[in-house]
Design the sequence.
């Protein structure tokens, strides 16, 4: 049976055989039987590389962080996980620069991890275990952002909406030219993406356009 450690754009944890392209964590979420018993632990939600320096780590070791998997980086950002400062150092620094350029920090300084995590935690949760949504005109949104469409997660990418599934994007529809939409990606993330941080997406996004 697959473990309940795959993350959706809604920030939920599901059990599915598909692993995805990225790893990450948001604290110790499992018990001794490797069952998920909490939604998050603390504010540090990160997205990591699947492989780094040949390290090997058990996915759910006793009393240590719960290894999570994401379809791609766009999914991780929508769920509220920022780039890891260690295994993705260059991406982390690029994210910090885009964060600052977007005006997320009123002083215009490069933010610390703690500063970003505090803002992201406010943006991603309405209440415990409840994702915060916000609304904007679809024309104002950059590629790489997830929106809610007919109660499901869709990725904005290259003039289309792509339907998310745990194994990849399975279909697309034309992107509407205008209209207010509910946005899954936290607002500070959206601003950083609009300022130039381009998340990686699963290769199935091209196949969904075929």
Sequence:
């Amino acid at each position: 049976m697959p473990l309940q450690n795959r993350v959706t754009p809604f920030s939920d944890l599901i059990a599915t055989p598909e692993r995805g392209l990225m790893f990450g964590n948001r604290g110790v979420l499992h018990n001794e039987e490797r069952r998920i018993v909490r939604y998050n632990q603390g504010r540090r939600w990160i997205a990591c590389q699947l492989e780094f320096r040949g390290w090997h780590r058990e996915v759910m070791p006793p009393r240590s962080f719960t290894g999570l998997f994401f379809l791609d980086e766009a999914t991780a950002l929508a769920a509220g996980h920022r780039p890891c400062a260690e295994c993705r150092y260059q991406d982390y620094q690029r994210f910090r620069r885009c964060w600052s350029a977007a005006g997320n920090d009123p002083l215009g300084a490069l933010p610390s991890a703690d500063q970003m995590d505090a803002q992201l935690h406010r943006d991603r949760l309405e209440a415990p275990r409840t994702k915060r949504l916000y609304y904007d005109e679809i024309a104002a949104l950059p590629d790489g952002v997830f929106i809610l469409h007919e109660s499901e997660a869709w990725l904005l990418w290259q003039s289309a909406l792509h339907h998310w599934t745990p194994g990849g994007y399975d279909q697309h529809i034309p992107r509407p030219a205008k209209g207010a939409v509910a946005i899954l990606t936290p607002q500070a993330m959206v601003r950083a993406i609009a300022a130039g941080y381009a998340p990686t997406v699963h290769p199935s996004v091209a196949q969904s356009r075929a």
